């Protein structure tokens, strides 16, 4: 550690506090998102079974991959460039940045929607287990909503660049999940069809884009970035030299989450695609805390690096990683210890996915252990490095998936995704350590790992004695929370819990 960095903890306090305030809303949104996404998947699986759920979520998978591809990396570009422009230029170029970001994304998403709307062969290839007419209608429905959803995601990136996570949390983590369940409940009860349930998932995208636009207008008015940009301030070249690699890497990022569903639908059965979707939702729910911290930390790291406060940015990364490990590892240990009981919530046919859930929980623990290493790469401007990392990981996933999915089904898809997670995160952590000097391990980090391992020991003992049963899960949660709470209190200073609680109390007041 260099001499300037030794003073970083004190200088990092304002940014740590800002990240904690943003993280507070992110955690609340993550909790709501996890609950309602879980409920939505349960509604779909209970209404149309694993086969029908596989068809619906294959459409969701294609839609998610395309919408995040057609953003062209513009949302991440806005997070970085808007926050930097506000920090060093007073926000004079924000209007030009928005034009540079939104117009190409809108055009790209419209072009991408045309094959879904006009080419029936796309639908029958994606959904070979459905009657052709049903498959075409379902895919066309997703194509109709693609452009508006893509533009909404880009606008939310601009609000994050203004230093607030509230619009993103309100739209993506609270608004859409809650609306989807609100629409899906009567549909599942009175008219459980594939098209109606798909519409329940898609309709909130319209409201989300409108809210994102209104929130951005409010952010620009509050920050004084609504004035016209000066002549010659359109930063097309600089913006897209960063966003273009991110556009490609985002394809790999979101394809990694959903490509297993597509492979299972095409190479195995629709029922296995439905089981895998449920497993993916469980694992994704466990990483929502990491996403919440990432939303708060990303603009802070970009701002700190823009004003050459590198030591403070490094300290912020270490503190945020400690928080993520502290609260996420015990959850994944719990899920891996009682996989059959957790998956039985979706129905008895989903219990067969227990080995796959264990594999993905192990990979997710590696993801959590390195913190938001990929965010550091992007906010430091190394989008080409991030592209190389995600491309390597996706190549591993696709290769392993093509080899294992036909033979192992759901487990093969989980192994391929798990391998990609490990490759991507370890590579990113190594890059930021060797090339940027961002370290992860300190006293707080090792203490957080120790607390997580204490909880894991208790859960392992309960699992050995009580088995993978509902009573065993309840006992494990009770004893695990007692051990976890004791660890938080005993090691509150090295873990930074006292500081975090203080920030949250002031925020609540």
Question: Could you give a quick summary of the protein structure above?
Answer:
With 509 residues, this protein is an all-alpha fold.
Which helices and strands appear, and what pairs or packs with what?
Blueprint lengths: L2 H4 L1 H4 L1 H58 L3 H16 L4 H25 L1 H7 L5 H30 L4 H25 L3 H9 L1 H20 L12 H32 L2 H17 L1 H19 L3 H28 L1 H5 L10 H16 L3 H7 L3 H26 L1 H25 L8 H24 L3 H21 L1 H4 L1 H12 L1
Keywords:
509 residues, mainly alpha, 85% helix, globular, disordered N terminus, disordered C terminus
Contiguous low-pLDDT stretches (5 residues minimum) are: 1-13, 500-509
Shape: globular
Distance between the termini: 37 Å
Q: Tell me the helix content.
A: over 70%
Order of helices and strands: HHHHHHHHHHHHHHHHHHHHHHH
Number of helices: 23
Mean pLDDT equals 81
Strand coverage percent: under 5%
Major sheet summary line: none
Provide an overview of this structure.
Helix 4 packs antiparallel against helix 5 (94-118). The protein is globular, with a radius of gyration of 22 Å. The two termini are 37 Å apart. By secondary structure, the protein is mainly alpha-helical. The longest helix has 58 residues, at 13-70. It has 23 helices and no strands. Mean pLDDT is 81; it is low at 1-13 and 500-509.
């Amino acid at each position: 550690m260099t001499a300037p960095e030794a003073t970083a903890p004190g200088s990092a306090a304002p940014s740590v506090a800002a990240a904690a305030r943003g993280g507070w809303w992110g955690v609340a949104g993550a909790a709501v998102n996890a609950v309602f996404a879980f409920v939505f998947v349960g509604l779909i699986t209970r209404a149309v079974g694993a086969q029908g759920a596989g068809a619906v979520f294959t459409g969701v998978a294609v839609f998610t991959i395309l919408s995040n591809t057609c953003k062209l990396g513009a949302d991440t570009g806005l997070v970085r460039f808007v926050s930097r422009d506000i920090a060093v230029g007073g926000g004079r170029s924000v209007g030009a940045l928005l034009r540079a970001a939104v117009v190409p994304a809108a055009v790209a998403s419209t072009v991408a929607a045309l094959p879904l709307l006009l080419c029936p062969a796309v639908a029958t290839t994606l959904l070979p287990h459905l009657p052709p007419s049903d498959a075409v209608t379902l895919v066309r429905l997703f194509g109709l909503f693609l452009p508006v959803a893509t533009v909404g995601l880009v606008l939310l990136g601009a609000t994050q660049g203004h230093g607030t996570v509230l619009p993103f949390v309100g739209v993506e983590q609270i608004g859409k999940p809650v609306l989807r369940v609100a629409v899906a409940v009567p549909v599942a009860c009175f008219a459980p069809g594939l098209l109606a349930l798909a519409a329940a998932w898609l309709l909130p995208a319209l409201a989300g884009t409108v809210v994102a636009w209104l929130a951005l207008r409010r952010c620009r008015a509050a920050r004084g970035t609504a004035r016209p940009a000066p002549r010659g301030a359109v930063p097309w070249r600089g913006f897209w030299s960063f966003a273009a690699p991110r556009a490609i890497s985002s394809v790999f990022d979101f394809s990694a989450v959903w490509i297993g569903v597509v492979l299972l639908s095409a190479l195995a059965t629709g029922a296995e695609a439905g089981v895998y979707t449920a497993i993916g939702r469980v694992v994704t729910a466990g990483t929502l805390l990491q996403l919440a911290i990432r939303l708060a930390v990303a603009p802070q790291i970009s701002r700190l690096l823009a004003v050459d406060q590198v030591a403070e940015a490094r300290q912020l990364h270490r503190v945020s990683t400690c928080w993520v490990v502290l609260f996420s590892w015990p959850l994944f240990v719990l899920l891996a210890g009682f996989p059959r009981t957790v998956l039985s919530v979706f129905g008895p046919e989903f219990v067969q996915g227990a080995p796959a859930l264990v594999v993905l929980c192990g990979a997710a623990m590696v993801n959590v252990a390195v913190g938001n290493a990929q965010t550091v790469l992007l906010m430091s401007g190394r989008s080409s490095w991030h592209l190389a990392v995600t491309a390597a990981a996706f190549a591993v996933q696709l290769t392993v998936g093509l080899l294992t999915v036909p033979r192992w089904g759901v487990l093969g898809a989980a192994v391929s995704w798990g391998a990609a997670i490990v490759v991507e995160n370890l590579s990113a952590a190594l890059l930021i350590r060797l090339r940027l000097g961002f370290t992860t391990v300190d006293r707080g980090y090792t203490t957080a790992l120790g607390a997580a391992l204490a909880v894991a020991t208790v859960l392992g003992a309960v699992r050995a004695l009580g088995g993978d049963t509902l009573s065993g899960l309840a006992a494990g949660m009770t004893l695990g929370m007692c051990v976890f709470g004791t660890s938080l209190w005993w090691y509150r200073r090295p873990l930074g819990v006292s500081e975090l609680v203080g920030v949250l109390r002031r925020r609540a007041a």
